[in-house]
Design a protein that fits this description.
Blueprint: E1 4-5, E2 8-9, H1 15-30, H2 34-37, H3 41-44, H4 55-58, E3 66-70, E4 80-86, E5 94-100, H5 113-119, E6 122-128, H6 136-151, E7 160-170, H7 172-183, E8 189-193, E9 209-214, H8 226-232, E10 238-243, H9 256-270, E11 293-298
Parallel strand pairs: 5-6, 5-7, 7-8, 8-9, 9-10
Antiparallel strand pairs: 1-2, 3-4, 4-6, 10-11
Helix pairs in contact: 6-7
């Protein structure tokens, strides 16, 4: 009933308490509103999602439960795709990420990263390319087609903030992501893993770029691919990590450093969440002999 709390009559405040309360609320409103008087962290960054990050938390599935769907109407843009999304609808929209695999490889080879990113608060699509031997430029076109497909999929697009998009890719897919970024400067971030491309100058890329290479890569040696790509991208926000004692196929299995850096980069630039900067600057500890990271470079602060 009106005026009841838990079945009891609402207590009547004394006149002095009512006057004091009204005065306090009026003063707050005149100062710019109750919320403005004491700004919340959410108000400072409306894209912040999830709890405060920890290193251990970034190396495993995140706080969001994940749903999955098969992509619809993939052809002619790309062969097929799998969508991963946070099932939570209480925290607003999420950024979108499209991912493309490498030469003669299917999405299945790197599929673990899809639900991993979704569990940290992104809507993700991972794809198979039109043919296994598609070159980087074709993979770049296809990953952009996949991103557009995701943004227009009525089953999930209500969960997506269309202004916050990113790409990631492995091997020739990483090269394709770099090529795609030149053609779509509105992207918020890209993450090439062990990228390969015959093109070496990516000065046209102005999107925040994280490149992850590996020590024993015989297919895309970092001196010939990852490092020149990192050196030439024009964005002031960029980082490069070389993982110790790994080869070109490190992305096939759940990799804690790849997970930590990738999630942090996307959170920092897609969600504008500076809580994740601590994992990027100064970055992971470097120990060429015994550590997990042989080399790390970044333009700090990020």
């Amino acid at each position: 009933m009106p005026g009841m709390i838990s079945g009891r009559a609402r207590p009547r405040l004394s006149r002095s308490v009512r006057v004091a309360t009204r005065f306090t609320l009026t003063a707050a409103l005149l100062a710019g509103g109750v919320a403005a008087a004491v700004p919340s962290q959410a108000a400072a960054n409306p894209f912040e999602r999830g709890p405060a990050p920890t290193q251990a938390g970034l190396e495993r599935p995140g706080p969001f439960q994940v749903g999955q769907l098969q992509a619809q109407n993939a052809l002619p843009g790309f062969a097929a795709g799998r969508i991963y999304y946070p099932t939570d609808t209480t925290q607003g929209t999420f950024g979108a990420v499209a991912i493309v695999p490498g030469f003669v490889s299917s999405w299945e080879s790197i599929q673990w990263i899809g639900p991993r990113l979704a569990s940290h608060g992104f809507v993700v699509i991972g794809i198979d390319t039109l043919t296994p031997t598609d070159i980087p430029a074709d993979r770049g076109n296809q990953v952009l087609a996949a991103l557009d497909n995701l943004l227009n999929d009525r089953r999930v697009n209500s969960r997506i903030d269309r202004s916050r998009t990113a790409l990631a890719g492995w091997s020739m897919g990483g090269g394709g992501v770099l090529e795609a970024a030149r053609n779509r400067p509105g992207l918020k971030a890209i993450v090439p893993w062990a990228p390969w491309d015959i093109e070496k100058n990516f000065s046209g890329v102005r999107v925040p770029t994280l490149i992850i290479g590996d020590e024993f890569d015989e297919l895309a040696p970092v001196d010939e691919h990852a490092i020149p790509f990192y050196n030439t991208v024009s964005t002031p926000s960029k980082a490069y990590a070389n993982l110790n004692n790994t080869d070109h196929f490190f992305v096939w299995n759940d990799n804690p450093i790849q997970s930590r850096l990738t999630v942090s980069w996307l959170k920092r630039y897609v969600d504008n969440d500076t809580r994740y900067s601590q994992f990027l600057c100064p970055g992971p500890a470097v120990d060429p002999a015994f550590g997990l990271v042989q080399d790390y470079r970044a333009r700090c602060p990020l």
